[in-house]
Amino acid sequence: MSISSALQTGVSGLKANSNAVGGISENIANANTVGYKRSFAHMITTTASGGNNSNNGVLSVVAEQANEISKAGGLLSTQSETDLAIAGNGFFIVSENAGETNHEKYLLTRAGSFLPDENGDLVNAAGYYLAGFPYDLDGNLQAVDRSSFASMETVNVGKLSLSASATQTVSASGNLPSQSTGLATPGAPFVTSSEYYTPLGGIERITLNWQPTSTSNQWDVSLTDNTGAALGSFTMTFADSGSSSGTPNSYSAVTNLATAPASFALDTTTGIATLSLNNGATPQTVSLEFGGIGSFDGLTQFSGDFSQNFDRDGSSLGELVRSEIDNNGTMYGIFDNGLRRALYEIPLGVVDNPNGLGKRQGNAYQLTGDSGSFHALTAIGGRVGLISSSALEASNVDIAQEMTELIKVQRAFSTNASVITTVDEMMEETSRLKR
């Protein structure tokens, strides 16, 4: 190698170590940035001719920057339920704009500091919008394409509401006191009522009178509607021996007392009453379940206190109060009518080679040919991590490591500078030979 070649090599060393210092300074500056992944420099030997023999050209060095994307940072607890962190592999899938349809503008990130914007769309501190798979109104996730961004939409927690749903089924459970029956002079009836939702979301009630009779284990039951008008009546008898003791033994004397178009009927085998309630242009049909013959699933009769509970479907109009996100990435909406419904699945994007992703501003990464195939998978652990709500992933920068690297690079830079000054002195001595 000639003296001039040594000078060029020293210059390349200065430039390469300058670039390495730049990467270290970025790491230190972002030591507290959420989800930041440190970068580092690979020093690579090159020649002017591109050959393998140092005699073919000037040997020099370049610094190639790489990102340590696959290494996770620690998890930090927060107070925001929409702050998200990933325990394990995977990335949140985000888009540059809300409602983005251009698949080229979808990115991956581990920075989960999401908050709703003025429209209720979840956006992180870097301005990227969280994407997910929406559930339908019945709480079901339809067929989605997990190998592309086609089925995704921006996650929104704005002014969501649930439309009212009419009650279709009411199930009765509880206990009737057996000691109240079989008396010469039975006591007063036990009165209960169950509310139900109308098609418009209003609340009305069905009232039930449970009259113990002078016959042991037998009750006369009558029902009235929301206005107090009679619907129907029947007699309910319970078994008093055998393995079915305390369960319904028979239904009898079923009578429809309702005024048309309202009506009352009861299946004496299943213990399911069918009520037509005159509360609209078309009567509302409600099934009232008392319990099948020999079944412990409905009402029972044992010695003790009277108790009765009703479980019903349907709901009134509901406004979203808050959201919850479980470890599998399912976002649930909690509504002011007491209902809880799945809204979105927040999938995790995985690629074959995370370190091959292309770096974008805002701690985001784009797919490249080096990153391999992409899939948006449910957070289940294993290959795909779990999602932690009210948490953030810290930067994976280790300050002690960066300071150590800084010392090494500084020494290398100084040594290359010494090479240049030495070559300069040698060239000066060479020029003096002619004098």
Please characterize this protein's 3D structure.
The protein has helices spanning 3-29, 399-432; strands at residues 39-47, 59-67, 75-77, 84-87, 91-95, 106-109, 115-116, 122-123, 129-134, 153-154, 161-162, 169-177, 190-197, 203-212, 218-224, 230-238, 248-256, 263-267, 272-277, 284-289, 299-302, 307-312, 318-325, 330-335, 340-345, 348-351, 358-360, 364-366, 374-377, 386-389, 391-393. Strands 5, 6, 9, 10, 11, 23, 24, 25, 26, 27, 28 and 29 form a 12-stranded antiparallel β-sheet that branches. Strands 12, 18, 19, 20, 21 and 22 form a 6-stranded mixed β-sheet that branches. A 5-stranded antiparallel β-sheet has the order 13-14-15-16-17, with no helix packed on it. It has 2 helices and 31 strands. It has 435 residues and is mainly beta. The chain is rod-shaped, with a radius of gyration of 37 Å.
Largest sheet: 12 strands, antiparallel
Number of strands: 31
Pick out the low-confidence regions: none
What oligomerization state is this entry in? single chain
State mean pLDDT (0 to 100 scale).
Answer: 90
